[in-house]
Amino acid sequence: MDLISQARAGFARIDADAALKEKALANLNTWLTHPDFAAYRPQIESLCHAGAWSVLLDSFYQVMPFGTGGRRGSVGIGPNRMNLWTLGASVQGHCEYLRQRFPGVSPLRVVLAFDVRQFEDKRKVYNPALPNPVLHLSSREFCQHAAGVYAANGIQAVILPPDSKRYVPTPELSFTIRYLRAHGGLNMTASHNPPDDNGSKFYDDRGSQLVPPEDQLMSEMVDEVAVIKHIPFADALRAGKVQLLDDAPHRAFIELCRHESVLGPPKADELRVVFTPMHGCGGFCAGEVLEAQGFRPIPVPEQATPDGQFPNVTKTPNPEVPECMDRAERVGTERHADLIISTDPDADRLGAMANRSPDGKGTFRFITGNELAALLTHFKLAQLARAGSLPAAPIVITTEVTTGQATRIGRQFGAQTISDLLVGFKYHADALWQIESTGQYGDVRGSVADFVIATEESHGIMATAGVRDKDSACAALLLAEAALYQKRQGRTLVDYLDDLNRQFGYFRNELLNIVLTGLEGKVNMARMLDALRKNPPKEIGGLPVTSFEDLQDPDGRMGPFKGDTDKAARNFLIFRLGGDGQTAKVCLRPSGTEPKAKAYIEVSGAPWKAGTPQDAWDSSCAAIDVRVQKIATDFLTNALATIGQTPAPGADKLSR
């Protein structure tokens, strides 16, 4: 029996759509027979002989979708994996898009950046005894391959020298595109995903990722790619078709971030800050900015070296996960630090822990992404107001799933707030671009000079219009200055957060992940959202659902679809709840990069009233905590019931 016949028999035992199986067989046949894929054949044969039919079906049933700004997922063999073919097709499509976007412009130029990743098959999918074209493939090599595609298409790629020891983090890439007046950019990174993942994110000439309908146009061009033009990177470099990036944009980026200071440099050893890039690129942006501004960050030695396997990181290099900062916490305890700051591999996200004692001898408290959003929004607005430099109509930008406390804070300072954006910083950047180019976004009026800060719940902050993506560097500086300001008053960031809860109301925000893996999981996820869309619950966690909103409703506030990418991004359900003196909200959407649906839960109460006893305040906050867990358990149970499943033990566990 030949391999395709074996695969057909193997796929028959898997519960999946017959059309997808046929597509997988067709793709598998191409990769087994076409000379362009000859190097992959030994591993594909090995998977067939091992009967790894689920792996093969998932690897070949589709070409990896061009999703949130590009492609991201497991490195591996097949059209549904990240490899040089899937990257090459994406870059070829980008070349076609740029030629259409900038007709007659020559030369077109793009800036390329890459993180520290290198594929080592941690999941042990492939046979280690056989040749493997993707084994040891690094983000740098991915990027150099992309440069060869751009060069073959007559587009100049700007990239770090092959022997460079530094990296261009995500926020610096956004800045550099603008600084060099390039026409676009590519970032090879999988952010905080596991080590065996990688991805490509494409940027426009404004230094932001594409939004509908532009991302739809590019996606269609990527899908239409039949031939990938490519010349070897070394040949392109020798021929002058690739430009090497010098230090000028980097120096300008560091100075831009330092310009966002609202306090000025600290005195020597006035604040003790531990900083870790968790083996990623953060030392080249957040670390340098803190150092340049006089904070003298204390390193975590075993995590200071760039390493795409993240060997000394617990769980995952994701600032949303408190456990990943355990080594930094030990250093902080030993050095009596006031603050711990971490960054993820591509240095767009910020993580933090604050000492509970102003003398640095206490324990540390993790600061969530929502708390960072509220804290930094308040701190920057308050400091600008104190200095008399707050714009007359300041602008604060956040998302539908970010804490409502940030919106309340903005309004306290008379800010115009954009608080209903979809998930993804490309929407923040687009809102800012519309303000910059037209003077308005919805009801908001002004200019980029009025922009103060943009935030999201997943530890993303943008504090300068000079960058159009998440930026850990400016955020790290603002957070260090917030800690410094509190310490000068004998207080901590923990005290600051308590003050915000009292002044603006206690908000408890939680993320519940509904994990549904593989092809079957993707089908079930679609079924689950459709069932909830057609028959939304009347009550969740003991609170009545006061309103339900489906953002895919073409008659709703977002109007008709701008394309398939817009429709996918708007696969987003909002359940608003109320009662018992509490307001709550559940937002559900499928992740754009991971095999799960995300349920964002928020429960909030009223601000503290003068004269309220401490025990009464504590009791009201505790009641909110209880309510959040009830909502999580009830929503998870009901959501899985729509696809005939029940929650696994502990699946409804929250952060605390």
Automatic annotation (TrEMBL):
CDD domains: PGM2 (cd05799). Keywords: Isomerase, Magnesium, Metal-binding, Phosphoprotein. Coiled coil: none annotated. One of its GO terms (molecular function) is phosphopentomutase activity. Pfam families: PGM_PMM_I, PGM_PMM_II, PGM_PMM_III. Residues 136-222, 254-355, 369-499 form the Alpha-D-phosphohexomutase alpha/beta/alpha domain. Its cofactor is Mg(2+). One of its GO terms (biological process) is carbohydrate metabolic process. Residues 302-321 are annotated as: Disordered. Belongs to the phosphohexose mutase family. This is Alpha-D-phosphohexomutase alpha/beta/alpha domain-containing protein. It comes from Gemmata massiliana.
